[in-house]
Each structure stands twice: as C-alpha cells, then as structure tokens.
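Blackboard transcription, Thursday session:
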Amino acid sequence: MADTRSNSRVAALLIDLQRDGGDALHRQIEGSIREAIRSGRLRVGTPLPPTRALAADLGVSRGVVVEAYQQLVAEGYLTSRTGGYTEVAIGSEPAVPAEPAAPVRPPLIDFGYGRSDVSNFPRSAWLRSIRRVLADAPNERFLYLSGRGMPELRQALADYLNRVRGASVDPDHVVIVNGYAQGIALIIGVLAGSGARRLAVEDPSADDDARPVAAAAGLSVVGVPVGEDGIRVDALERTDADALVLTPSHQWPTGGVLSAESRAAVLRWATRRGAVVIEDDYDAEYRYDRAPIGAIQGLAPDSVVYAGSASKTLAPGLRLGWLVVPGGLVDAVAAAKITADRGSPALDQLVFADFLTRGEFDRHLRRMRPIYRRRRDLLLTALRDRAPLLRPAGIAAGLHLVAWLPPDLDEATVVAAAARRGVAVHGVTPYRLSSAGPGGLIFGYSALSESSIVDGVALIGEVLDELRPES
Amino acid sequence: MADTRSNSRVAALLIDLQRDGGDALHRQIEGSIREAIRSGRLRVGTPLPPTRALAADLGVSRGVVVEAYQQLVAEGYLTSRTGGYTEVAIGSEPAVPAEPAAPVRPPLIDFGYGRSDVSNFPRSAWLRSIRRVLADAPNERFLYLSGRGMPELRQALADYLNRVRGASVDPDHVVIVNGYAQGIALIIGVLAGSGARRLAVEDPSADDDARPVAAAAGLSVVGVPVGEDGIRVDALERTDADALVLTPSHQWPTGGVLSAESRAAVLRWATRRGAVVIEDDYDAEYRYDRAPIGAIQGLAPDSVVYAGSASKTLAPGLRLGWLVVPGGLVDAVAAAKITADRGSPALDQLVFADFLTRGEFDRHLRRMRPIYRRRRDLLLTALRDRAPLLRPAGIAAGLHLVAWLPPDLDEATVVAAAARRGVAVHGVTPYRLSSAGPGGLIFGYSALSESSIVDGVALIGEVLDELRPES
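(Written on the board underneath:)
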C-alpha cells in the first residue's frame, strides 16, 4: 500500500507515486489504476475521481492525470461517460451477490407465516412523509438519540394506541425499537438483570424470539397450555414465573382470543406474584368479523409491557417496533436500548411519526383490511370444499389461521407430503414446548394470490385424501 | 372497555354501544367521544374516522354518526376541517414531551466530541436516493432480511472500502449494523461465545462501547499504553489477550497514527496468538495534511475485523454502520445480528447503497473536508495565540484534537473552571484505564462555528492564565 510513500489522498490511495527516479508520473498512475482494475479492486462501473481532484490529491499537474486517463481509455480499461467523468470499463461485473443459504428449489406455494403483502406497501405516501421530514426536521434530530426514541414518534404512537388499541400510554413510557425481536430481547435482558428467573410462555408459541433469548439470558422457560380461547388460566394459576409473554388478542399460532374474565385472571396472577405480563400485540390491526379486542395493557399499565411493530401492517423490512413499559422499568429498558445500538434510526422514526399523525397509517389499514379479509374468506371456502378433513380455527383476526388435523393423521407426514407437492406449510407441533396436543397446519395467507390460496389448499386436500383414502 | 359488548371496530374502540334500551345511539356515540376527549385519550388535533367508515364499523346508519359529530362540533369538542374531516378541537396540547435528563443550563460553547456538523447533512441528495429506491426496489426487499444485510449495500461498501480505504473486502464478509456500538457488541458477543477471555484496548480509549460491553460479556479488559504514534507495540508484545480494539489511523483520543512498522508488529502479535484485531476506523475519511492511511484490514483480512460507520461522515442519527469480518467469523456475526434485531432497516440500506454508488458520498466528503480543515486550522491558531500553554497533538486527521496540559496544571481543575465559564471540554484522564499519564483536553471542533471556536479557546486561555498567573 501507498501509505507513507505517496502524497496521494482518499480516492488516490491505490496510486503509489515514487518521485525519486523511476517511471514518469503519468506512467506510474496508469500502472496503479491498471493493476487495481486487473486485481478487481476497481470494479467495472466505478467512477474515477475528476482529473482536477486527483491531480490535487497527488500533488501533480492536471495534465499528468489527463494523460494517464487517456492512455487507459485507449487501452480499454477506462471509458469516458456523458457528464464528463471517467469510469472503469472492464473487469468483473458488479453482480448482486447471492443470498446465503438460498433454497435450491423454493416451494411453488408458500403458506409460511410472517410474510406481509409488501406489494401493497404505500410507497407514495411514505415518500411524501420522507419529503416532509427532510424539509422540516431540525438539524439536531440527526444527532445521537435518546434511548426512548424521537419524542414526535412516541407522542404519535401514544395517541394511536390510546385511540385504536384502547391502551393507556404515556409517551414517556414508550421506547422505540427495531422490531419485536429487539424489543423482547431488551425486556428479557432487563428482567434477567433485575433478578427474574423464570419466563412463562404460551404453549404452543413462537420459538424464535422470547424462548431462545430467555434461555441465553439464563432464565428457565416454562410453557402454559393454550385452549380454544387462548392461555388456560387454570394452568397459569399453578405456574411459578416472574414474567409471561402473552398474545391475548389473537393467540399465536392457534388464534384464540382471551375472554374478559381470563384477562382479569391473568392480571390478578401477575399482581399477586409481582410478575410482568409482556403483551405481544402482533396483528391486532387486522380483525374481520367482530369487535376489536383492546390491549390488555389498557387494563393494567403498571403490570404490562406492550409490544407492537409495523412488520405486519407495513413491512418487516422497516424494522420499526415499539414498547410501552411500566414506569418502574422504562429507564432500564431505554438504557439497554442505548447499550444495544444507541437508538433506532432517526429519520425512520420521524417519517413514521408523520405517517401516523397525518392519518396515512389508518388509511393504509382501511385499504388492506378488505384485501386480507377476502383472502381469508377464500381460504376458508377452499378448506371447506377441498380439504374438509381440516378444522379451521382462530379465523377472526390476523394474517394466518390454524387448521386442525383429524387425530389419525400425523402432522409431520402431512407437512412432508405437501412439501413434495411444492406446498410449504408449517405444523403446529414444532412450536409446542410439551409434546402433547393435536396436530394442525398453520396457513399464512396474507402474501399469497387468490389463485395460489385455492391451488395450495387443493394440493393439500389431495395429500390428505391419499393419506386417508377411506374418507 | 368496549371489548365484547359493542360491534365497533378499530377506530371505534372507545365507543361502547348498547342496543337494548338506554340512550339513543347518537347520544351514546356523543357521550363516548366526549368522555374520551375529556380523559385525554383523544387529543387535540386527532382526526376522527369519516362518518361513513365509523357508521359501518359500528353497524349504525351514517346519519347517527353525523348527528353525533354535529352535536360535538356545536359543543366545541370537535371541529370540521377543510378536506371534509373532523378532528378533536380541545384538550391537552400534543406537546413534544421533554427529553429526559436535559441539562438545566447547557454550556455556551461545547467542545464535546462526536457531534458531526449535521447542519451540512446532504438532505437533497439523500432524498434523491430515497426517491429512486422507493421507485425501483423490488417488493421482496421490504421483507425480512438476511443477517448480513442488503446485497446492494454490501457490494457498494466493498467497492468503496477497497477503493478509498485500501481494504480487501469481499461483499460476503460484510455485515451491516446499526452503527459502531452495535457492531462492537456483536463481535465481542461472538468472541466471548467462542471462548475469548481477555480483550485488549488502547489506554486511553473510548469508555462507552467496547469496554463496558466486554465486561458485561464476562471478558476481562486490559489496557495497552499509547504513545505519540498510537499503541505501543513493545507493551502489546507483553499483553495476553484474545482480541485487540485498535484505532490505527487516528488513535482516539490522542490522535497518533500507527507507523507501518508498528502495524506489521501488531499483526504479527495477532497471528502468533490467534488473536483478532478489531479496527475501529471511525474518522479516516477526514485527513488534512498528509497521505491517507490505509486500513490495516487490507494487510490481513483474515485477522482483522474492520468497523466503520456513517456517524462521522453523514449523521449519527442514521445509525448506519458496517463490519468486514474474517471468513471464519462472519456467519456467527450475521447470526448474532439476526438474534439482536433481525437485521438493519431495509430502506436505509438501499438508500445508502444508492448514495454510495452514485458518487454522492464522495461528493459530500469533498465538500465537508475543507470546512472541517478550516475549523481545525482556526482552532490551532486560537490555541497558539490564546492558550499557548497547551500543546496540540493528533491534528492530521479527524474531527477533534488533544491539547496536552503542562505538568503543573491539574486537568480536572481546568475542566471544572472552563465549565464555570460556560465552556464544555473533556479531559483525557477519564478515558484512561491506568491513572498514569499527562493531562490533556479533547477539543471536538466539527460542529462548532468559527467564532465559537475562537471564543471558547479564549475563555480556556483565561482559565489557564488564572490558574497559573506567573506564566
């Protein structure tokens, strides 16, 4: 490298000028650029610095650089482009590198959960919010942040959650995070640091966030069985834990909705034990047939940590999430956020705040709800017509449902046979902590076309007919 | 709450309709909204749903909702706005909540480090990149992400670092993170998980990232003294550690530049021990007087983790950082990133990739370099003229310099006396692991106006004159 011998600077780092004897300066510049292109360090399409800038950086006259560029253009290494700049003409293509571990043969129809319909992402409205933020945001909003997040977004979310989710939110209790996964990791870290030993989770429940994070933090994880109406409070009563992760509005994955009586019982359990309830409100915005279920946080803001995100409503790629934390924990959670990454990106927060306060978020949800409802209705019809052995449940809300298998059909066998037909569908069993419980299939329908839904269910119906031809 | 008794939906959650007897429906709607406004749940400026939408949600005729709204407008609770919507007219103002722990009386002139000049953030160019990304990005870019980050950005960064920093970067070895703090936390977590026990850091060095993270991960932290030219390799030779955090291009805070011989010695130390060098390349883009110093990563890509960010070049609020990780560690670091937060925000990554590949980043640096150089030159002149007792060092690069105190002046006394005059300046001593070493002041100059620089130094000069009147 040229570190100490050349007087080149930033863009000229690859050029190793030796002034005492040796080749002419323009030859040295040519040679360095040529070698950089050959070795792949300068890739095709890379713009070279303007001759004037490079000459100044190298401390040579501009003519020297012009001569070097011209030679390399003549040799085909460089090319002159409109606009007066020069770029690398040959070498390896700047191909987009392959994603690691891409499946060799993706399924033709994927009922996998968690894939929002990002083809409906409100790009124009989002751009309008960005334009306003870039025009209006004070400079200091670009500096380091508080652990809680931007005050504009905390206020907008408090207003939204109080209005739409029946929550009881003080903006000072909101902590902005990069999605639910980070949020649950921060909370569990804080609880573990303050002496928590056992985390209760629903059984079945998601296996890729709270459970591994708790295990890594040294907490033991205990499952509480779930019935048709969400967590079974009789079983919870017998559970010894310092915190409980709960999906009261739409149990994941089985879809049950916790009754008013059970909610009160959960909160009594928490109060009696001094335990914290972590409410994962992952898809409450989509509710199709009945009254919306308010957040349990609104009933007991001092016992409940509320967690939400834009992953299901807008796009997972935004990595926008939020926690509402009881007063006694919020400083610790904000401090943990600072330690983790110094706060979430500023512009994204301001854009989402603008998007919320201007009613764009409500508008987007109003637009998406009938789209998802229609897909759900199609799925239910297809299940009834093409796979009548399956018994759908948890259909009132969200972006997925569970269809229970008859007891004599083995879940893993069905899932494997469907995969051989090109249909990806998850079973419920892998999400159980105990091995007991009926088999079922999880149908995520939010990102599938209507024809894919019908075709996929028909293929699964054929699988079921083959596995149980007598039915 | 209205959970089970009403047939209202999302925005209508606050409205508790009872159909069997009781008040007329429009009276019930009025009462619910009035109560929500009084209690602060609906804040001034909050838009109400369109009458048609609310009526559909509640299962009442539109006239009922219109009547309720009209009554509340008449009473002054609501107001009709142009555009045909109705919003809350009274109640508590949606004030921006106060930032926690704001200093009661901020310093008049703040030489604090790490505050980029965000008033020069390239808002227009950034918006152009956003517009292109929102127009062109394929839908799947909005979904969940790989732990490494967007392929477009990893390629653009590899090209940039190879071209400008003399690095040797394969895009598959890049992991996008939310700034340096998250990057160092991920690396230290991976190293701790693979058996590392001791982390070496420069002494003095930053006290708010690697050191607390390592301690929290159970590593012991050992300081290696720093001389005028960066880390002292004679001391490093005697150091037993599994990893070393290094600022070779511009030691933080003392400003030394590691010589070619010392770089080779550091790498020999690492190879001999199987240790990892973590290169914190925090401000290399700003170099004023001499050749740029290439990244040490380019010399030994299999032993060095390179860490960079956009915090000093663009804005800390972006939370954009990157790691270049040796092949044997990159999968583990990417997995740790997924566990931490499922990947950095997608749009931000695509925007920065566009910004880099179109040469906007180079253009921004070319614009900023003379601005910062002029501030540095002014600072040096002011120090010479107004505070000649101080001896500046580390002036060749970056956004700060250290000015050493004469041995008979106590650093803490000077810092406190400056603060009483309204000048914030940090001492070097708080950043030392050992107590030994001369006293000095850290002057961050990147975010100060030219007059503030001159006035601030003059005030410090007065402080020094008072503390040592004989000089």
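Lecturer's comment: Residues 28 and 42 of chain A are 16 Å apart (CA to CA).
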